[in-house]
Specification:
This protein is an alpha/beta fold. It is built from 9 helices and 10 strands.
């Protein structure tokens, strides 16, 4: 099932949104990570629409097919304002939020700004501070941006050779193909290296745990139980998961046998979120 795609204007640019399911059904709005794009949520969307939800996944500004905006217009709170504007354009006074990686921080920021709009919050493998050993693979993935590659096949081989996206699948290949555009002598990612690095700089000045106290809705933390990299580290250390549960009233958590990337397309993730939403 392919989504219906549309472009939605927000304050600093235009957001590409992909809708799955019945527009009259309850809305689940999905937000991706640092250098990712909306198509990573396709398998989850197929699973959740079978449970009676509509799923809308967006490309954040500067990613995928959304526009890049001027310097100084990024950061979790500005992305959160985009999310709230997109939901309003979709006529959703309230909605369920699902965020992976940086998208989880955007979701917590949306709770801080528009708490009454968020019906439930699902954080996929991000909540507090990642272990330092987990960061090189994340930043290594960013290196693909702003560079020309001689062909799609070479690009996919280079991404796959990083070894962080596991298990590799046709879903991941479609996801990476989506972000590519032809350029003279090859292909390159549409995603803006500047946009990503501005969000990296923003994150370096924030303590995401300060956002936990702003969460008033039902919340679920889905934690990747395998480290990212070799030997690597965890984006959500086990102690942070326990701390989150002690701090956020009524929160629940589940561990999934996958790493930070694999958890996004894991059947156990879909099942946990489906149970949580229902």
């Amino acid at each position: 099932m392919e989504p219906v795609s549309t472009t939605i204007r927000v304050k600093y640019g235009a957001i590409r949104a992909h809708r799955f399911g019945d527009p009259a059904a309850p809305l689940v709005l999905c937000v991706h990570g640092l250098s990712a794009n909306a198509r990573g949520f396709d398998p989850m969307a197929w699973a959740l629409t079978e449970r009676g939800y509509q799923v809308v996944a967006i490309d954040l500004r500067g990613r995928g097919h959304s526009t890049a905006s001027a310097p100084g217009t990024y950061g979790w709170k500005r992305h959160a304002l985009d999310v709230l504007a997109v939901a309003a354009e979709l006529s959703a006074e309230r909605f369920h939020f699902v965020g992976h990686s940086m998208g989880a921080y955007v979701g917590m920021s949306a709770c801080e700004i528009g708490q009454e709009r968020i019906q439930s919050l699902t954080l996929i493998d991000a909540a507090g501070f990642p272990e330092p050993a987990a960061m090189p693979p994340i930043l290594g993935a960013v290196e693909r941006l702003g560079k020309k590659h001689p062909s799609v096949a070479v690009y996919l081989d280079r991404v796959r050779s990083l070894g962080t996206v596991e298990p590799w699948s046709a879903h991941w290949e479609r996801y990476f193909r989506y972000e590519l555009q032809e350029t003279h002598g090859g292909v390159q990612a549409r995603t803006s290296h500047h946009a990503v690095m501005e969000d990296v700089l923003y994150a370096s000045t924030q303590d995401p745990r300060m956002l936990w106290s702003t969460i008033r809705c039902r919340s679920l933390l889905v934690r990747a139980a395998r480290p990212l990299g070799n030997p690597g580290g965890f984006i959500v250390p086990a102690e942070d998961s326990a701390w989150f549960l002690r701090t956020v009233r009524g929160a629940s958590a589940v561990d999934v046998d996958a790493n930070h990337y694999g958890v996004l397309m894991h059947d156990d993730t879909f099942e946990a979120i489906g149970r949580f939403l229902s």
